Amino acid sequence: MSDTLTLLSWNVNGIRAGYKKGFAEWLAQTQPDVLALQETKLQHHQLTPAMLQPEDGYHTYWSHAERPGYSGTAVYSKPQPLSVKTGFGTPEFDSEGRTLIAEYESFILFNHYYPNGTSGELRLQYKLDFYKAWLEQVQAYKATGKALVVTGDFNTAHHAIDLARPADNVDESGFLPIERAWMDELVADGFTDTFRHLHPEDIDRYTWWHMRTRARVRNVGWRIDYFFISTAHLDRVVAADILHDVEGSDHCPVLLTLKV
């Protein structure tokens, strides 16, 4: 058995569309130990046998939004988690299927599709409330002593280096000071951005590109998909990367290699 695990995280922008674009073949070729998905955009009755029981020994876990064709998260995992929890136990946040928490022997994975705040003040406040609620929830998990791995589409670029045109977006949700301040709070609470820790000076490394403007071809992107880890366990990080060559969504996968 390997002494490391490869974790990938990807906002697939619709898992059914993903399967039509070669998701199953990509998964079979890539073979991550754990794959966290966001924006699956389906409900339980729409899951196919290939999704529920993929080849190569994956267990799958799903959290669905009440609203059809919207939001949703999933985890594909070769090691079977000790437990899997959907949501915070708060209907206001759990109704959109944005959270899966999988506990393993030596770490706990938090897979989140954080809300987008671009549609107006109400959704921006919902996003900020979700951020706050998660940070409150995670405190109880610190007592386990396990590494806490937080991944997903955060829908916020933390620093100016994390998007192509920071000056043009200071008043846009996704780069607002109040959103970025929450990410500062996450760091202050004892979490480290694994990619930026290992690649502090890397520029032009993004995970999302606007589809309608062909931004990916021009690499006018945002880094809004992350793997954070509890800073006390930072020595377990072997590698962190952005798989920008993987297509099939307006996002690309991000990678974390972790010592078991």
The structural domain count equals 1
Gyration radius, in Å: 17 Å
Number of strands: 14
The major pleated sheet works out as:
6 strands, mixed
Please write the string of helix (H) and strand (E) elements.
EHHEHEEEHEEHEHEHEHEEEE
Mean pLDDT score: 96
**Which structural class best describes the helix and strand composition?**
alpha+beta
N- to C-terminal distance: 10 Å
Helix content: 25-40%
The CATH architecture comes to 4-Layer Sandwich
CATH H-tier superfamily:
Endonuclease/exonuclease/phosphatase
Anisotropy-based shape:
globular
CATH class: Alpha Beta
**Would you give the CATH topology?**
Deoxyribonuclease I, Chain A
Low-pLDDT runs:
none
Spatial arrangement of strands, main beta sheet: 3-4-2-1-14-13
Helix count, DSSP H or I runs of 4 or more residues: 8
Question: What percent of residues are in strands?
Answer: 25-35%
